[in-house]
Amino acid sequence: MTHAENSAASSFVLLQVGPRRFALPSELVAELAPPVRLHTFPHTSPLVAGVIVRRGRIVPVYDVAPALLGTDSPAHRFYLIAQHKIGKSSEPSAIPLNGECELTTAEIHPPPAGSPDYFSGTLQIGYESVEVLDFNALVTHTPAAAGDDSHQEARP
């Protein structure tokens, strides 16, 4: 990579959700945590699968597979902990992953026209096009009702 190409590139974590790979800007990722007990409770929050306790903190777990894949989350191997911005502050939030993660440097390109709001761009990794996730938009996404392909996002 030339110096000019390197200055336009950013660092991303590639992650596996079901059979697909996605990317998150690396500055949002705090850690990869081993699978621990998921505590569930009655609630009506879309995508919230429950909470885990990590480093003495309660961390909400968002099952993003329905939004990204249209199916329930496959069995997961670990949690990716990333910073979720809420107003002027941020809190750690987790998503379950079922495959390996890797760090890469690439140039982000605009998302294809008509992409859901939780895609902020795409990366070209070899012959593969990988969608870059807008983590805040993803974890606040309200899944569409059955048969509804509108991909509308609910804002708090």
Task: Note down, in words, how this protein is organized.
By secondary structure, the chain is mostly beta strands. The protein has one domain: OB fold (Dihydrolipoamide Acetyltransferase, E2P). 10% of the residues lie in helices and 44% in strands. The chain is built from three helices and ten strands, in the order H-E-E-E-E-E-H-E-E-E-E-E-H. It has helices spanning 3-8, 65-69, 135-139, and strands spanning 10-17, 20-25, 29-33, 48-54, 57-62, 78-86, 89-97, 102-106, 119-125, 128-133. The strands form three sheets. It has a five-stranded mixed β-sheet with strand order 8-1-2-10-9. Strands 3-6-7 form a three-stranded antiparallel β-sheet. A hairpin with a 2-residue loop joins strand 4 and strand 5. It is globular. The N and C termini lie far apart (41 Å). Mean pLDDT is 83; it is low at 1-7 and 146-156.
* End-to-end Cα distance: 41 Å
Percent in helix: 10-25%
Task: Name the assembly state.
Answer: single chain
Query: Which percent band covers the strand fraction?
Result: 35-45%
Q: What is the number of strand segments?
A: 10
Q: Please give the domain count.
A: 1
Number of helices: 3
Which outline best applies? globular
Average pLDDT figure: 83
Counting helices, strands and paired strands, the structural category is mainly beta
Quickly name the level 1 CATH class: Mainly Beta
Question: What would the CATH topology be?
Answer: OB fold (Dihydrolipoamide Acetyltransferase, E2P)
Strand line-up in the sheet with most strands:
8-1-2-10-9
Note poorly predicted spans.
1-7, 146-156
Identify the CATH architecture.
Beta Barrel
Order of helices and strands: HEEEEEHEEEEEH
